Structure to design on (131 residues):
């Protein structure tokens, strides 16, 4: 019995015939991503709660670095982004995401700094002079 469906729609044909070798992950890769996510969440929590660094700027920089790494870990281990899938377009999506995250983090810090500098009282003496 022959089928009239084209080869690319045949369920028995491998999908990677067209260069779309999508990775679906394994239990090991999901567990690796899960463990890395826990570690990358626990370390910034410890940095803040343990008051590890005396400099707040260093603490913020470390948290931003860990957050960026965690986004990349999620994209690789849970969204299965690599250089081979979809002819390399998923790697382009990863690079685009890293650029957007960097812009969002830098913009957020810029806004928070200026809100703190321009909206918050600077000293107790200034508070005494408030109406």
């Amino acid at each position: 019995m022959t089928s009239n469906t084209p080869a690319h729609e045949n369920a028995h044909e491998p999908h990677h015939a067209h260069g779309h070798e999508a990775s679906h992950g394994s239990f090991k890769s999901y567990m690796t991503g899960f463990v890395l996510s826990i570690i990358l969440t626990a370390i910034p929590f410890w940095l803040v709660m343990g008051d590890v660094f005396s400099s707040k700027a260093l603490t913020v920089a470390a948290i931003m670095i860990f957050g960026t790494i965690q986004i990349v870990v999620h994209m690789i281990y849970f969204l299965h982004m690599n250089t081979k899938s979809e002819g390399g377009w998923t790697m382009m999506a990863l690079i685009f995401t890293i650029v957007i995250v960097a812009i969002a983090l830098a913009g957020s810090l810029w806004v928070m700094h200026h809100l703190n500098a321009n909206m918050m009282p600077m000293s107790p003496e200034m508070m005494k002079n408030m109406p």
Notes: DSSP finds four helices and no strands in the chain. Residues 9-17 have pLDDT under 50 and may be disordered. The radius of gyration is 24 Å. The CA atoms of residues 67 and 103 lie 13 Å apart.
